[in-house]
Amino acid sequence: MSKPLIRWLLILVALAAATAGFGALLWAQDMRPLARVVLVVGQVALVAWLTRGLFVWRHVGWVSQASRLILLTLGLGLIALLCEQLGHRAAAIMFVGIWAMSAAFMLGVELLRFAFSPGHPVLGVARTLVDEAIRMRLALVFVVGVVLLIPFLPFALAGETRLQYRVESFLTYAMMLVTMLLSLMTLLLACRTVSSELTQHQAFLTLTKPVGRMQYLAGKWLGLMGLNLLLAAVAGVGIYAFTQVLVTDALAQVGADPDRQIDYIATQEQVLSARRSTEPEPVNESALALDFKNRLYNLRLKNPRRFGNPDDPSTQVTDRQRGLVRFEAVREWMTIPNRSAQTYRFSGLEGAAAVGPTVQLRFEPRAAGQLNDNMVGLTLRINDRPFADARTSMPLARVRNSTWHVAYIESQLIRDDGTLDVTIFNDAPGQPTVRFEPNGGLEVFYSVGGFGPNLIRSIAVVWVRLAFLAMLGLAAATFLSFPVACMVCLLVFLAAVGSSYLDKSLSNYAAVYAQTDGVWAYATAAVGKFFAKVREGELFDAFKLVIRLIGETFTLAVPPMARYSPTPLLAGGRMVEWSLVGGAAWRIGVISTGVVGLFAAWVFHRREIARVTV
Amino acid sequence: MVATPPSADSEHYIRCARLTKVFKDFWMRNRVTAVNEIDLDVRRGEVFGLLGPNGSGKSTTIKMILGLLHPSSGVISVFGKTPRDVSIKHDIGYLPEESYLYRFLNARETLDYYGKLFHQDRRKRQNRIDMLLEMVGLDKVQRRPIGEYSKGMQRRIGLAQALINDPKLLILDEPTTGMDPIGTRQIKDLIVQLKESGKTVLLCSHLLSDVEDVTDRAAIMFGGKVRRAGSIDDLLVRHDETTLTTPALSEAETEKMLQLLGKAGVHDVKVTQGRQRLESLFLEIVESAQREGVATAGAGNAGAVAAFLTESHTETDGQAKERGTSQVIDDLLSPATVQPSTAPLPSNKPIAAPVQKERVLEELTAPAPVAKPAAKPTTKPSNSSSARPETPNDAPSSAAPPTPPAAADQSILDDLMN
User: Fold this and answer.
1) What are the chain A neighbours of B121 within 8 Å (beta carbons)?
2) Is the pTM for the entire model greater than 0.80?
3) Which of A411, A568, B137, B237 is in Cβ range 3.0-4.6 Å of B302 for a Cys bridge?
């Protein structure tokens, strides 16, 4: 810093201190009119001196940033004040949110630039990428999107009458928005930075310095990840803050309304918490095992070629087929005909008994036939005692069909061994069979953590996913032009996001049955079926098999992002486990990103940077 | 096949042997042979010019030397290593033929970025950036984004980035393209000064007068091949023509000279009035305007050569210790205002020097230059860049004594003396 600049700063601080000091002194002496005059004059002088300095030193980086921050604060502050005065409190909060997120981003960028300032090639490349992202406006579009939409969303969802749904919707949309915007920004920026530097030749200069090509790519990736970390952090804080705004706002309106009170408590316990769940088990496992055996026996009688001889051991049944049979048996077990009951045992609830006063039984009844009023009548018994809701002390009322419901059970009912038996009676006269879907149709939830840490883990998973996308974009741009690289990256991204859906679709599109498990057995079966179809003249079926194989090869290569999606868990108040974060970090952050990174390094090392098209 | 580079040789910074580059199409068919089995060597401490028209293969050769393109066959060695070896790049500075800088960075940030690539700590970077910005005359506009710079200003900052690491080998591809005459002159001066401080420069250009002013040796390329190579003096000397430069002569004196030459059998004589070079005139005008304080929005006056560029090599050679660093800098630095070349142009000499015509004639007719009329002309100047004639009309008389053709020999001089 130059001496005149330091002088200006010192005078600024002295002026502020003198104004505050004299003002406080006079105020303490009960010379309030004089104190006011001193404060006013001092503040005017301070503003004048500040403005003069900001203008004179505007070419200095941090002064210029401070000017922008002050202008932003003044501008948005005035708008927020105006909205508040006009009675639009929501708009005022929105503008304050926009200001806070913008200011946090601006300060974060400076921190990031500082972190990348040491004299190392990788850091140099990373810092230039951050500058490029901000100054070339490409990233700025997405940043503005995040900064504007997150504060806007809570008020756009005001139509939801229940707070619980409003918060759930906000969390779902906000997380989806952040994931989508940051993913697109990462892909576009990664593709652009490398391809444009190759076509506009900035890479010529960088790579004629002592910078390895791996270092160049590593620098780009580091810059992208730094920017993503900043944006994810700003978005995460924004989501947290506006969730609190929603809840606090609702709390002020709760009053004595019991519905609103229940809604508020439900929001706190079912959304703004981190809960684990446990699936039911049969009290008598042998009955389920016998059912499974009978089903397998019947299948073998019908189709011995596929399922094996009924008198033989079950060697010819694959694990997948066995799993399907078992699933059918469980589905049967979770179906309750009229005038009968089923007992489900939930275990592993030792921790839940220690933590909270209640656990939550979450269920979605599905009637197999028509209902007059679409309501289902069920009776519950907990550990063979009549059920009374822990919140209302009432038995379970009639509930809407095909809708999620929650019944609160006192934690003290959990046995010492951590088990809890829930018996469900389908005892309403004339009511059709009622079933619960396996894998989520009937669960017991218990709280194990707070919303804040859960949000941090969710954001961490999103960031790990962005690590892969950043490397994917860089890798594609090392040998493809910008538009082609973008298209390839988007294709991979969409396939990764919809990987589970794609798998199911491909399985249904063209079925292949392998006799044993394993890729080789599957490939042999697929190829065998292909030639069989060709021989039989069913060329379209053969073509479908080819399509399936191509699709499966592609989905095998892309990381299974759908498996590591934190948004439904966060919005449903479920625990985003560290195992999920670790799994995502290993599978996506290390394996997928590493493989793509090695590919990029190999391609970039081999290619001629100054290749001429003739 | 690309062979391994030859072993390290401290006297040869760059060696290319049978270097070939063939560009292929998508089907791997040969499309263009940009460089065809060329042999080149750039020696330590020299300024080497790589000349040729557009498309002759100069830039392709340079890109192969820098590792940006891979040779189809042949050998390249830079500091005794393959060009793809990252370690050699610590000692190379490269100015490409166009501005390949980030348009969104300002001049200071640009130099800071390139400084980081050389692992320079902050203090060292800032010192060098200050010196370089002053040297290229951009210190007043250092906060403006490069995208707002004129082409000449971009060349200046490009030159500064090439020097940020104080390179042993400086590769300049068309360094004066887009530069005004002041910038061109400054770059030529800089090249001379860098050479004097022990640096090696590979200069690639098709602006022949620029190359002629500063290079020691040159290779002329055409069609991907080196057509001629050698020292500039060897390449440029004309054995069939002699140039006499005198103070202004009256018509009668000219006539007398022609008659004397006619008597000696020399009839094809061309007499022209001495002319100032346009470059000199231009520089005089700009210098005058600067003295009057006329403002400009572009690059400012170029400053002294950055001290670190001359310090390291003089220290390496042990000369700085003898003379003292300040003395070295004083010797090398030019004043802050635009000056005529430190490699003085003939036109900067007094055009109408107060020299007695008779004395000139005496000097011209002195027997010493023609003592060995059959000998090979030896117009070897003491300073290759300063004494070399740029046009026949303004050839210096003192540094390069005229050597008449063998046919004129003693009889002409005898006539002149009578």
Assistant:
1) 118-119
2) no
3) B137
